[in-house]
Write a structure and sequence with these properties.
Length: 840
């Protein structure tokens, strides 16, 4: 059978053939506009569906606006809905066409059917065309007095829309007063809830310039109104209940009886099936009893059961949200939840994000009574097929060991992990054993006997290798092979890419030298020579510092680098108590999920107006965010300088290097401190005595270095193209694809900080050094830049993210490069250019 003629074919609405389709629709709608024939509504439905389909897939059908309005004269509610949808979509972009809709919408607002009245009023208020505001007043006034609750509900929302179109018109028409009257006297709970939401928003916006609005806003928190809402709370839906409970949180009770009355009214809300209502009620209970310590603790006991029930009965997403709030409560009162630790055991079918949160909670609630059971469970997770969960479980065991006094069984479990012969398990365990030895040195014999059997060749992760090297240096006298293992690692210095590991090698070689000098002499000489020639600034500075302090006095060097070992009493917390209290105040919000106060992820001054913020990481430039960016040469605060004890770090001052890095060292008197600082500045040839002794010392170590001057490594020259250009899209694509070549922190000179009042000042300066800015933003004290540069005569790009905090005078630099081999050279060029900023 031959296909039908082109005129007889009707293409799919989702695949229109072109403008002719819209023209055909227009003519067909015009024919049906005035028709009263039987079945005409069915024909209109088919055409309306085509129009809506075209509109949905992005085809412009605004040319049929007039015909759609003419066809709207019908009692078919389905046609009305589709017509209102069409009108609402095109009215704002075509204000002139919107005038065509006023008559039929106003007519529908008086229809006998309350559904049509409500839909018409909603569509009329949704036009949001300032020129049509005068046409809204009459229908809104009638809608607020309508006998049907649905129409009144729509009218209340329409008042809020009118306020955002023209605030003065809304206030002059006295709509807020009408809403207040409805809120207090209407029998329908949804109308009351909409009135409350609208009045809160209107009076909050008006309060900045109207004393009357301030008084009205405060009146919402009066005792009669609060009790009026709470007594009716069962009538409202979940959304409205949460709105009322948020209002109750802000209420200040007059006395303890007032508090107990409110809690009695809301007691049954804790058993609600909706998690949002339960969390909102919990927040009310917690905030009301903050000043009543005993009652506050009883509240924890009361809310525990409903929250644990929600965790086990909801979806994974709901479980995570409830668990996040439980985690906040567990941290504040771990003893309350200590007996319920089994609720936080991981299930095999749970998502990894839920498991991670449960591991954190198990760590927080561990105490003397449940530690054995919790650690036994955590050890089972170490063999999990999910490597990340296995790592987290090992870390959890380590954290529990660090916070307990009786760690006998836990140490045995940790050492058993080393026998599993899994790289990631061994790596995590070594880091934890190192921390454990810092707090419990008495366990060194048992730990070192096991760690000594681990081959350094099987450890690839930098943190784990650094931990092993630290133990080799700290306990060199107990490990017979320590000097030879260190010597092997030092001989492969060039193959070690982690600056963290190279820094630990220098320190460990020094410690081992003081304990077993004959066996370590050669290795230390090689390490110092390699360190001084290292292109990484921190490695170079530390090696040079060690070299000079050894020249000055070996005994002083030993007191500096390897002081008597002292147990660390406590490790630093990652969050301050102030931040935690702020998060608690924002209970039942995203702050709890993100584990940071709302100002860190909402306010513009902390986000920064960056053109490519979504594409390039969207890192908030706050002091807190800056501290989270860990440069390659830095490591965690607990590990930052393993040659010092905690007490000494707090008491001692640092020696600053040229790039702003600071090294702290214990000093026995101000005399030694001043001599060492003078030595670090003047060099090994500061005095005749020092010069003479340095010859002997160089011979001892076999360095063969001239004492007249210690050479500073000169990185290879890198010439940049002054006329470099890069398309923003190409920048975004490369930034996503390229790995990070180097991450460092620099100090910005005071002149540069003074000159950095606006981003443009630094942009011009860097451009003079052939480093160009493609995006920038922020305001004092936080600035963020994205720079790019190109190698001269070669198609090689260098991309740089620079975050500068002018209050701390620090710059966080992240470099990505097409040529990884020259990225360090570019980082040096960038640092040099930045160091000259603000200089005359």
């Amino acid at each position: 059978m031959p296909p039908p003629a082109a005129s007889a074919r009707y293409p799919s609405p989702s695949q229109p053939s072109g403008k002719s389709e819209v023209t055909d629709l227009k003519s067909q709608l015009r024919q049906l506009a005035g028709s009263r024939a039987p079945g005409v509504d069915d024909s209109k439905r088919d055409l309306f569906k085509k129009v809506i389909s075209y509109m949905t897939i992005g085809i412009d059908v605004s040319s049929v606006f007039g015909e759609m309005v003419m066809c709207s004269a019908t009692s078919d509610i389905v046609l009305k809905k589709m017509c209102y949808l069409y009108v609402g979509n095109y009215a704002k972009g075509n204000p002139d066409l919107s005038l065509l809709t006023i008559n039929f919408l106003q007519r529908d607002c008086k229809d006998e059917d309350p559904m049509i009245r409500g839909l018409a009023l909603r569509s009329l208020c949704s036009l949001r065309v300032p020129n049509l505001v005068e046409y809204l007043l009459g229908p809104l006034g009638s809608g607020l007095k309508d006998n049907n609750s649905y129409v009144r509900t729509i009218a209340v929302t329409g008042v809020l829309k009118l306020y955002h179109i023209s605030a003065s018109t809304c206030i002059d028409a006295e709509f807020p007063a009408t809403l207040k009257s409805l809120m207090l006297h209407d029998s329908d709970a949804q109308v009351v809830a909409n009135c409350l939401a609208a009045l809160q928003e209107i009076w909050s916006l008006e309060a900045s310039h109207s004393e009357e609005a301030c008084r009205e806003k405060e009146s919402l928190l009066s005792k009669p109104l609060i009790y009026y809402f709470l007594n009716r709370i069962k009538e409202f839906n979940e959304w409205a209940q949460c709105l009322i409970l948020e209002l109750a949180v802000k209420y200040v009770p007059s006395d303890s009886n007032d508090i107990f009355d409110i809690m009695n009214l809301l007691e049954d809300r804790l058993q609600h099936a909706n998690g949002a209502v339960v969390l909102a009620t919990v927040k009310v209970f917690l905030q009301l009893t903050l000043s009543m310590t005993d009652v506050h603790q009883q509240v924890y006991e009361r809310i525990k059961s409903p929250l644990l029930t929600l965790v086990s009965s909801g979806s994974p997403e709901q479980s995570y949200a409830i668990l996040s709030h439980l985690h906040l409560l567990v941290v504040r009162a771990p003893f309350i939840f200590a007996s319920d630790y089994k609720h936080f055991y991981c299930q095999y079918n749970e998502p990894s994000y839920v498991k991670k949160l449960k591991l954190e909670m198990l760590t927080a609630i561990a105490n003397e009574s449940n530690t054995y059971e919790i650690v036994t469970e955590l050890c089972e997770y170490a063999a999990n097929v999910d490597i990340e969960i296995a790592r987290e479980s090992i870390r959890a065991v380590g954290k529990i060991a660090l916070q307990q006094y009786d760690v006998n069984a836990i140490v045995d479990r940790l050492l058993q992990f080393l026998e599993m012969e899994k790289d990631y398990v061994t790596a995590e365990t070594l880091v934890l054993v190192k921390d454990l030895l810092r707090k419990h040195p008495q366990w060194s014999h048992d730990c070192i006997s096991v760690v000594g059997g681990i081959s350094s060749k099987n450890i690839q992760e930098p943190k784990a290798k650094a931990a092993l090297i630290w133990m080799l240096g700290e306990y060199a006298q107990d490990m017979s092979d320590a000097p030879y293992i260190l010597e092997n690692l030092i001989e492969n210095w060039e193959e070690e890419h982690s600056a963290e590991v190279r820094l630990h090698l220098l320190t460990a070689a020094m410690k081992c030298f003081f304990k077993r000098a004959p066996e370590t002499q050669k290795a230390l000489g090689i390490a110092l020579a390699a360190g001084i020639a290292d292109f990484h600034q921190d490695v170079h500075d530390r090696a040079l510092f060690y070299y000079r302090v050894l020249q000055y006095d070996v005994h002083v060097a030993e007191r500096v680098v390897s002081p008597p070992q002292q147990a660390v009493s406590a490790f630093a917390d990652t969050q301050s108590s102030e931040i935690k209290d702020r998060i608690f105040d924002e209970f039942n919000s995203l702050s709890v999920i993100y584990q940071k106060p709302s100002y860190m992820f909402t306010d513009k001054e902390h986000r920064g107006p960056f053109e490519f913020s979504d594409e390039l990481g969207n890192i908030p430039i706050t002091p807190e965010a800056s501290s989270e960016i860990v440069p390659a040469q830095q490591y965690e605060a607990n590990d930052k300088d393993l040659l010092l004890s905690t007490d000494e770090k707090d008491d001692n001052k640092g020696l600053s290097s040229n790039n702003g890095s600071a090294y702290t060292a214990p000093y026995e008197s101000s005399n030694i401190s001043s001599q060492m600082q003078e030595l670090a500045i003047s060099g090994p040839a500061a005095s005749a005595t020092t010069t003479q002794s340095s010859f002997d010392f160089d011979d001892l170590l076999g360095l063969g270095l001239s004492t007249a001057s210690v050479p500073t490594p000169s990185p290879p020259l890198l010439k940049l193209n002054p006329r470099a250009s890069l398309d923003p899209r190409a920048f975004q694509q490369k930034w996503r694809q390229l790995p990070i070549s180097s991450t460092q922190e620099y100090s910005v000179n005071p002149q540069g900080i003074a000159a950095l009042t606006v981003p443009q000042s630094l942009i011009k300066h860097m451009q003079s050094h052939s480093i160009h800015c493609i995006a920038s933003g922020g305001q004092s004290p936080n600035f963020k830049f994205f720079f790019f540069a190109q190698k001269e005569a070669e198609p090689s790009d260098y991309l740089t993210e620079c975050i500068i905090n002018s209050s701390s005078a620090k710059a966080q630099i992240k470099v990505k490069a097409d040529e990884q081999s020259t990225s360090q050279a570019f980082a040096t060029v960038f640092e040099t250019a930045l160091s000259k900023f603000g200089m005359p």
